[in-house]
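To: structure desk
From: M.T.
Subject: fold request, one chain
Message: Could you run this one when you get a chance? Sequence is below, nothing fancy, just the single chain.
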Amino acid sequence: MGDLILYKHVIVKTPGKSYVNGLTTSDLGTPDYEKVLQQHASYVEALKKCGVSVTHLPASEEFPDSTFVEDTAVLTQEFAVITNPGDVSRNSEIKEIESVLKGFYANFHYINAPGTLDGGDVLQVDDQFFIGISNRTNEEGARQLKEILKSEGYKGTIVPLKEFFHLKTGIAYLGNDLIVAAGEFLDHPNFAQYKKITVSAEDEYSANCILVNDYVIIPKGYEETTRRLNEVGFKTIELDMSEFQKQDGGLSCLSLRF
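Reply: Done. Structure tokens follow.
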């Protein structure tokens, strides 16, 4: 399906017991920790099915949100950007991720204060990156990332968000100029040139799906989105994500893929 990045590695991190007290804007209730662990284990199994090798980090009780590893780095084939997460309670998560990534990368860049950036606000579309400005990513952080990308031969486009928590809450890229879009991205001028699988307001959560090699991993319970992905030729893996949705988390948030 188009000229796609093939992922070889993913990094995941077990949620700690403190996860159930992490940051959230949702009103879906407190996560059930046993279910959290089961859903995370299913996620790891799905990634293995996609043919990647998994680096699995142990839980860190002092960082309730640290299972959402995607926010700590932006990765390409050639270099790693260590972010500066927008919530103070998450800032020190980057130390562990940087040390792990040193096993894979030699070329590092950094987002520095007062710039803040969450990886969940960064979407790679071939040689272009879309960078969302959100409650967690500020203009200075987005500007720094854009400069880093330019220095490495990539383009960056800054997209101020109106409604979504993170950029990737409402959009995914599936290669071959095809995006999955919901909400404010349905008729957004920055994405007008792409083919779209559109997601209705009630199915919005399913816009956060991930293409990992031969499969699209998608939240369970969104038949319309799954059907449309299957119709255009994707194989899908559906995962119950209820306990991560409660903490504003989605499928992309739970791994760094490279």
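Reply (cont.): Residues 33-49 form the longest helix (17 residues). Let me know if you need anything else for the meeting.
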